[in-house]
Amino acid sequence: MIKYLTKPLTCIVAILLFSTIFATTASAFDPCLNIDAADPMYTLCRETNPLPGSGDEYTNPDSPTVQNYIQPILNMFYFVIGFLAVFFIVFGGVKYIMSSGDPGKIATAKNTILYAVIGLIVSLSAFAITQFVFDRITDSSASAPAD
To answer: If pLDDT is split at 50, 70 and 90, which confidence band does 75 have?
Structure first.
């Protein structure tokens, strides 16, 4: 029974995760999204946060950078990876408990836990590397001489 439900459940979980990623990052691209266009604050918001490609981002020193667009997407990606790693560690632990001493099932459960921990380490390393790169880019652009 479980064998027949794993693929549909996996697809449903993947769809929910990806829809959550895209729904939460949409507001990261446009901070003025929830402000009514008739509201005077909308004009102020557009002056400080111009739409990409409108031409205003080159004249406005406070305009969003590429980092402002990429960082929320990466943060959501790292959150999903961390969540999945913890889920698979717990899943591997449950498989280990339910193995009933069967050496094949024990090996499968240990591999599940091992690969989940490796995935968590890789994602934490990727997070550290991207944070380092973004910090270096921000520091170099802040200290660059103005033309």
So the answer is: confident
The predicted model scores a pTM of 0.52
The residue type at 9: L
Measured between alpha carbons, how far is residue 43 from residues 17, 29, 68, 70 in Å?
34, 17, 21, 25
Residue pointed to by tokens 């102020």:
44
Half-sphere exposure of 125 (CA within 13 A, CB side): 6
DSSP secondary structure letters along 56-121 = GGGT-TT---HHHHHHHHHHHHHHHHHHHHHHHHHHHHHHHHTTTT-HHHHHHHHHHHHHHHHHHH
Are 113 and 89 within 8 A, CB to CB? yes
pLDDT of residue 87 exceeding 60, the answer is yes
Within a 10 A sphere around the Cβ of 10, how many other Cβ atoms? 10
